[in-house]
Design brief:
Helix content is 59%, strand content 13%. It is an alpha/beta fold. Helix 1 packs across helix 2 and helix 2 packs across helix 8.
């Protein structure tokens, strides 16, 4: 089964638009079509970002709604113990945290809209870097 780490920007897109690839990818992760991999620090990042007022307003969700969604993610996600930290590799320390979850969790790919910043780092660790649309396409070909 494909193992994926979703960057926070993918979850933001998933709550803000019900018609996009990010929402579909999140749904498929919650349904177990792929192995969702996440660390505690990444889950905390999801919570902090998704509950920002601008995202809540745009998504028409409450803090409780976001908490329920993240509880569902936590139920299906494989927890990652961060045995090794590689910092700093990326411009944004939050991106380092996403990369560390992917590497320590032995993910097949990191899914992000931030292709430019992650490209060289994921290649260094032999990870694939996919957009949500690419991830969906690859999941369809595996079925």
């Amino acid at each position: 089964m494909v193992r994926l780490v979703l960057d926070t920007d993918v979850l933001v897109a998933a709550i803000r638009s019900d018609a996009g690839a990010s929402r579909q990818l999140l749904r498929e992760g919650l349904q177990g079509r792929f192995r969702l991999v996440a660390s505690v620090s990444l889950m905390i990042e999801y919570q902090a970002v998704l509950t920002r007022q601008d995202h809540l307003t745009a998504s028409r969700l409450s803090v409780d709604d976001v908490s329920a969604l993240l509880d569902a993610v936590a139920l299906v996600a494989e927890p990652v113990r961060l045995a090794f930290l590689w910092r700093p590799l990326l411009r944004d320390p939050d991106d380092d945290m996403v990369l560390e979850a992917a590497v320590n969790g032995e993910a097949d790919a990191l899914v992000s809209f931030n292709q430019r910043d992650f490209a060289s780092a994921v290649a260094r660790f032999g990870l694939a870097l996919w957009t949500p649309r690419e991830a969906l396409s690859r999941l369809e070909h595996e079925s």
